[in-house]
Design a protein that fits this description.
The protein is an alpha/beta fold. Helices cover 35% and strands 26% of the residues.
Length: 289
């Protein structure tokens, strides 16, 4: 049995953004999920703050530096976070980071409606200047750049990851949702987009025939009426019930909904079960057929 463990941003960044804090948080997070790491497993992770840090450097236009396309920024953060996690895991088992390309459809509707906020917040004046080059959107904290978030179709390195698992190696893969690429003749080329990390993790889990998908976030369960006096933990969810509740608007679009959709996709594609829980990984909402 193999599992894919999708780490939420709080696994590395729950106390601010710095390289030192990432190293410290990674040590704690890997210790808390050590019981999951004993068998065959793949780690995936988010990269929002790290990509934002690269974009901030680009925005500063420092002398003798060059701008980095978004696809390459994702690749950079895969390497950075992979190194952090490898350092935290080196005494557990052999571990390797795989820079992971994810195929998307260039005609995905998301490319016509950029919606995924990335990078820093801007004043309206700065945003209007940037709007000549990027799509900008007003948020509660200010203006941000928004990019397409297409659906992942295929993990190009699935075969490599499967082979690594068979030799007892723990692969770190699909960081930040993976590097989005499109097919151009016989080649794959990067494209400016951000793939949802949980969606990519579900596609990866299906592609390597994993038995389970564990999505680790900052709450121990999926809840109905979250943060109200009627809050109710959902300990078991069947896929049809999960989809019904999602259509009724019970899950936040930018928070729990993508996780529910990823879990349902994985189970519906042949996975045994998906679990959504916190970093303790001891309880959780189980999604099955």
């Amino acid at each position: 049995m193999s599992i894919v463990i999708a780490l939420g941003g709080n696994a590395l960044m729950n106390r601010g953004i710095s390289f030192e804090s990432q190293m410290a948080n990674a040590q704690k997070s890997m210790k808390s999920i050590s019981h999951l790491l004993k068998g065959k497993c793949v780690l995936t992770h988010g990269n929002g703050p790290q990509v934002g840090n690269i974009l901030l450097k680009d925005a500063a236009k420092l002398k003798d530096t060059y701008p980095v396309p978004l696809s390459a920024a994702v690749a950079e953060t895969e390497g950075e976070i992979g190194f952090v996690l490898e350092q935290a895991l080196h005494s557990v088992k052999p571990v390797v980071t795989v820079l992971t390309r994810v195929l998307v459809n260039p005609k995905d509707p998301a490319f016509s409606f950029p919606s995924k906020p990335i990078g820093p917040w801007y004043t309206e004046r700065s945003a209007m200047k940037l709007s000549r080059q990027f799509d900008m959107k007003k948020t509660a904290k200010g203006w941000r750049r928004v990019v397409p978030s297409p659906q992942p179709l295929k993990i190009l390195e699935s075969g490599v990851i499967r082979n690594l698992l068979s030799t007892g190696v723990l692969p770190i893969a699909a960081g930040g949702g993976g590097i989005p690429v499109v097919k151009n003749g016989s080649r794959y080329v990067g494209i400016d987009a951000v793939i949802d990390k949980d969606s990519a993790s579900a596609v990866l889990a299906s592609g390597i025939s994993a038995s389970e998908l564990h999505i680790l976030t900052d709450v121990p369960y999926v809840y109905l009426n979250y943060r109200t006096k009627n809050q109710t933990a959902l300990k078991i969810l069947h896929t049809e019930e999960a989809l019904k509740l999602a259509k009724q608007g019970h899950f936040g679009e930018g928070s729990m909904l993508p996780k529910i959709e990823a879990a349902v996709h994985f189970v519906s594609s042949g996975g045994r079960r998906a679990i959504i829980t916190d970093l303790s990984a001891k309880k959780g909402t189980v999604i099955t057929k």
